[in-house]
Amino acid sequence: MDTHTSKFKLRLGLFVLGGSVIFVVAIFIIGKQENLFDPVFKLTTTFYNVSGLQVGSNIRFSGIEVGTVDNIHIINDSTVRVDMLIKKNVQQFIKTDCEAGIASAGIIGDRVLIITQGSNDAPIVKDGQQIVSNEPVETDAIMSSLQVTADNAAIVSDQLVEIIIKINSGEGTLGRLIQDSSIAENINQTIVNLRKSSQGLDENMNAAKENFLLKGYFNRKERAAEQLENDAEKEKAAAAEEEEKVNDEKK
Known about the structure:
The protein is α/β, with parallel strands linked by helices. The chain is about 55% helix and about 20% strand.
């Protein structure tokens, strides 16, 4: 006697079919990520420090994901080799002077390998060729630099607060100038006196020009100024005439 009903067999069949579909889709997705279904070529580069880059990390060129990191292994105490698998249809755009660098996908995202654009006249890379690299900047170094900047900003801010407090309390020259109204009045009076002195000097100069004994001196100065002006005009006229002669000779 058959202990399994047709309903049970139907469920079992659907379960097996669903599992098979999920398996095929998973293989397709993994294969696509690993470029198993696309023709690829290999490139290599070396770093002193890969800064968290891992096998399977994405490779970007011109902001587009074009491949994955195939292998990472240590050559010696100062060199780490990174093997790359890149789509074949991108090879025509990658030149021998392109450079490889390591960056983050976001502020705190996964590490990705970036290939910069090369020059137009450089030859295209070959399969298995090695390209140069730029060492990545460590996040710890960036944070340390930002911390130093923040500490310096805090010191400057504290000093500014101290200066403002002293000014508001009337300490120092600037503080006394702002807080003591008598100093401001003295400065205003000094400016008024300077204006009066300047006005008096102008009046004395006008009086000296009208003086009989000094009138000849000022007249000579005026004639000398006029002579200089006339000489300058004559030089300009002569230069213009000479330029016209040169132009006529060229014609």
